[in-house]
Design brief:
By secondary structure, this protein is α/β, with parallel strands linked by helices. It folds into 3 domains: 94 residues, MurE/MurF, N-terminal domain (Udp-n-acetylmuramoylalanyl-d-glutamate--2,6- Diaminopimelate Ligase, Chain: A, domain 1), CATH 3.40.1390; 227 residues, Mur-like, catalytic domain (UDP-N-acetylmuramoyl-L-alanine:D-glutamate ligase, 3-Layer(aba) Sandwich); 153 residues, Mur ligase, C-terminal domain (Protein-Tyrosine Phosphatase, Chain A). The chain has 15 helices and 24 strands. The strands form 4 sheets. The protein has an 11-stranded mixed beta sheet, sandwiched between helices. A 6-stranded mixed beta sheet has the order 17-18-22-19-20-21, sandwiched between helices. The protein has a 5-stranded mixed beta sheet with strand order 1-5-4-3-2. Helix 4 crosses helix 9 and helix 4 packs across helix 10. The longest helix has 15 residues. The chain is globular, with a radius of gyration of 24 Å. The N and C termini lie far apart (63 Å).
């Protein structure tokens, strides 16, 4: 692979060196291995600036640099100047891995909530009609039988292209991925055009710090997907739908409860039994079918209706869709845990006030005898989140169990004190139990008939981070341990 081939679709200025040189790899972080003969991308990030590591990259054998400034090192190395190193990385990664997106049906899902669940629903339906589907998202990247944990909802562009290339090698014909606002804003999914782009919903989130300056910036970032896809699918019920579509360049379809929607839901009903919560509805418009799912919440009607719309475009028939949605289960997303008693236990990733309020309001519709909410908050994060989550839980849950999440470098007691400050603003009862294992045991041991117990905050995570060390901790295992103690 030669450098002049890799930069064909990039606007650049060659500051020094030759362009027709062999390239072994692409690199953008000197903390990782840089192969001799690699291109090193100097990315200006929120935490560090890759331009500061040029000498280190040269010492490790880099053959070329991609920079955003007039840099002319005193070394025999090719230097290419571009407007955005991140964007160049995306386009050059696509070329380096031989444009794998062109060999796959690509589906990108953006929105504040529902991305993870929707991607798993799409994957389940398509696999039920015989397609082989890769997945890239918050929980993991799935390539065939291999699951790779992810640090970011949308990985860096190099990794996305690498994963898609491996999917092609593994025989996949499709890939569904979560397109986060940060992934869109920072060009991680540049370098190819999605076949389908999906918008679930939009609410204020990820604003402040190193993420988005304000809500408008957040919205603009989400809207970029509809200039990067051939066919768009949009939640027509969301108040920001029109803003999301400004400047779009794709063919459009809509979904929602609105009668104008191309794919719409009607006759929604809650389903429940001992230890079980679900939902059913009628899908109408460009499809006609009954849907029943063993996961709760009106928000999952939107998620599933979206998945139906995409999969119908790709040839899925009603029966295959109904089968797949009937058995769908997503780790850490309103994940029901089997119990022998006449109460319900679920694990969910809700880790901010917005997601927790949505979850608890949905569960209130099932009229539990008591709604019990266990959660903590992460250390070294906004204190406002603690106050807000405490107030939401106290307002909507009958009992709040305040415990530890990922304290990181803070003392768990101080985090819990902040949460309790918020809890005291609402009418609900509460208890404080610092140890998460003991807190979960308390909930299970004191469960009453008709209770819905929500263990929130960590979802799919299987660790607890304390002072820079990740210790194994899985809420599922802690629930099972508590249940076995009761049964014993």
């Amino acid at each position: 692979m030669y450098l002049d081939y890799l930069i064909k679709e990039v606007e650049y200025e060659c500051l020094q060196g030759e362009l027709h040189i062999p390239i072994t790899d692409l690199a953008y972080d000197t903390r990782n291995e840089i192969k001799p003969g690699a291109v090193f991308f100097c990315i200006s990030g929120a935490v560090t600036d890759g331009h500061k590591h040029i000498e280190e990259a040269i010492e490790k054998g880099a053959a070329a640099l991609v920079v955003e400034r007039d840099v002319r090192p005193d070394a025999p190395i090719t230097v290419i100047k571009v407007q955005s190193s991140r964007k160049a990385l995306a386009y050059m990664s696509a070329a380096f891995f031989d444009h794998p997106a062109k060999k796959l049906v690509t589906i990108g899902v953006t929105g504040t909530k529902g991305k993870t669940t929707t991607t798993y629903m799409i994957k389940a339906i398509l696999e039920n009609i015989g397609r082989k589907v890769g997945l890239i998202g918050t929980i993991e990247t799935i390539i065939g039988n291999e699951a790779i944990p992810n640090n970011n909802t949308t990985p860096e562009s190099y990794l996305i292209q690498k994963y898609m290339a491996r999917m092609v090698e593994a025989g996949c014909d499709s890939v569904v991925m979560e397109a986060s606002s940060q992934g869109l804003k920072h060009n991680r999914i540049d370098g190819f055009t999605f076949d389908y782009g999906v918008f679930t919903n939009l609410q204020p989130d990820h604003i402040g710090g190193a993420e988005h300056t304000d809500f408008d910036d957040y919205l603009r970032s989400k809207s970029l997907l509809f200039r990067k896809c051939k066919t768009g699918l949009v939640n027509i019920d969301d108040p920001h739908a029109e803003e999301i579509l400004q400047g779009h360049s794709c063919t459009l379809f809509t979904f929602g409860f609105d009668k104008k929607a191309d794919f719409r839901a009607a006759d929604a009903e809650l389903i429940q039994g001992p230890g079980f919560l679900g939902i059913s509805y009628r899908a109408e418009g460009m499809v006609s079918m009954d849907v029943r799912m063993n996961i709760p919440g009106k928000f999952n009607i939107y998620n599933s209706l979206c998945a139906i719309a995409i999969c119908r475009q790709l040839g899925a028939e009603n029966e295959a869709i109904q089968e797949a949605l009937g058995r769908i289960k997503v780790k850490g997303r309103v994940e029901l845990v089997p119990v022998k008693g006449n109460y319900t236990v679920m694990i969910d990733y809700a880790h901010n006030a917005m997601s927790l309020e949505s979850l608890l309001k949905s569960l209130r519709e099932y009229n539990p005898k008591r709604l019990v909410c266990l959660f903590g908050c992460g250390g070294n994060r906004s204190r406002d989140r603690r106050f807000e989550m405490g107030e939401v839980s106290s307002r909507l849950a009958d009992l709040t169990v305040v415990t530890s999440d990922n304290p990181r470098w803070e003392e768990p007691e101080s985090i819990i004190a902040d949460i309790v400050t918020g809890v005291k603003k609402g009418p609900g009862k509460y208890v404080e139990i610092i140890d998460r294992r003991e807190a979960i045991k308390y909930c299970i041991t004191n469960a009453m008939e008709g209770d819905i117990i929500v263990i929130a905050g960590k979802g799919h995570e299987n660790y607890q981070e304390i002072r820079g060390v990740k210790h194994h901790m899985d809420d599922r295992e802690l629930v099972a341990e508590a249940l076995s103690g009761i049964e014993g």
